[in-house]
Structures are given as structure tokens and as C-alpha cells.
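Problem: given the chain below (325 residues), write out its structure.
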Amino acid sequence: MFPFTMEKAGSTEAAIAAAASGARYIAGGTTLVDLMRDEVERPERLVDINRLPLTGIRVEGEDLIIGALARMAEVAAHADVQRLQPLIAESLIEGASPQLRNMASMGGNLLQRVRCPYFRMLDVGCNKRTPGSGCAAIEGLNAGHAILGTSDYCVATHPSDVAVALVALDATMRVQGPQGERLFPVEELFRLPTDTPHLEHTLLPGDLIVEIRVPGGSHARRARYLKVRDRASYEFALVSAAAALAIEDGVIREARIAAGGVGTRPWRLRACEAALAGRKPDRQAFEEAAQLATEGVRPLHHNAFKVALLPRTIVRALEMAGEVA
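Solution.
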């Protein structure tokens, strides 16, 4: 590993000042340290933010507020999370091994880099790692890559499971930075690759995620996360679906659906949601709505199976959500 320096921030303001002058934030380090070892990323300065008071989990009304430095394991096991937002708890448990959940922070999980193998191969082209060098995945082994939101420059999927749940639940985030504080939907954090895939998020230099707010509602308690993968543990999704349903008098009042493993960012499926409004929660309605998820897909040589797997996964996730008492 190449030389670097690390300092510990004693306050949010000190952390932001250090990052604004070129340092990189590090919390759990479960992604960044690996990339530094592989020399995919070579930051010269790191600022350790683990001392910052951003680990709390609290409830305001029906809303759940999660500190950006709360560990995934703590969030998944928290009684208020399991009571108010079981979809978040389930997606966190499905998202990583117990060891990683104990280390990784919520904010870090949202900002983790892609798991495309070509991103870590320094001897092949990757526009995320080296802009203008090409995308080896397009003509390479691409079974795990995206079919939605891709470009001629990048086809890598976003790897986070909890991000899919947060997007489905209309979560928002609070960010502090050199230019002040701002609030925006978690969905707006993630960029499409277009012709600049190395720009993965909308944070400004020095911006620090402070907390995540998840609005409550009847849909939040009738929600499930389904992850389809090559093996049962410690594996990224081939296709995943977060589904939440508000059902009144035997009719779907509101549906929330997002998919992972298929898009270059967590993929909200609003056409599917709209198709379910006013329908009975039965398999026919689920299947008809799920077919809308494949609009605009661009399958590659090895991942065309996802075009069929995506709607099937959505149907099963909706059935699971509908079964919640």
C-alpha cells in the first residue's frame, strides 16, 4: 500500500474543513481500505470521522431518523427500526456478512463503490477508475451487470441493498458541507453513468452525510426485501426487490417498489407502483404490474436472464409483502 496520512476529526466542522482541503472521509473503511490495498484508490489524506456524534437512531412522530455513522448491525437490530421500518432491517441483514455489518456505517454503505471486477483490474479499461479508458465489461463477462440506466461508458450495478429499500421508502438525507446544510431524497444521491461514470453521486467536495430520515406510514409495516443471488451468503444481488404495500379494505391504496442488481443506481419502479393502485393484492395484479419493470432494458451478452428474473422477483416480493399481517 502507498503512503498516506490520517487524522481524527473531533467535530463535524473539523471533518468538513479537512475534507474540503482534500482529505477523504473514512468510517468503517470496509470498501475504501480494500480499494487502497488494490491501489484502485490512492488518497493521500484520510480523516477518521468515527468520533463524530452521528450514531443515533431516534423516532420523531412516525419518522425514523438514522445517524450516518450508525453501524449496519446496530440499525438492523434496533427495536424501533424493526417495529417501524422492517424493510430496512431485512435489507441490511441481506446486504452483508455479520462481520461487515458490525463495521460498515450507513452513510458509507450508500457511498460504496461498484463491485464490477473490471473496476479493480488495473490492466483493463474502466471509465469509473480511469475516465476515457473504456469499459471492459461491455464486451467481457457481464452476467452481474446492469440492464437499466446503462450507457456506452459503464454498465456496473450499484451494490447497496439498503439503498434500494431507502429509495422505495422515499427516504431523505441531511448533508452538511462547506456551503452549508441541505436536504434531498436519497434517490437523488445517485447519478446515472452517462459519459461521466466516475462521477457516482451528487455530493459536493467536503459534503458529509449527517443523517437519513425515513417517513413512516401504513405501507412501511407491510414491506419485504427479496434478494436473488448466486449463493446464500455474502454475495451481491443478481436481482433484488423492495416492496411495500398500503392495503385498505382489500385494495392496494399505495405501492412502493424499487429494484437492485439491475440498475446503475437503485431503481425506483413508479410505473409498477401506479399500475397497482386500486387493484386487489393478487397474483394477477402483481404480474401485470411487474411486467412494466422491463421497459427500457438494455441487456448484455451474459445478463439477458435478468429481463425475465426481474419481474418474477418483483412478483414474489409483492406476495411476501401482502402476506405480512
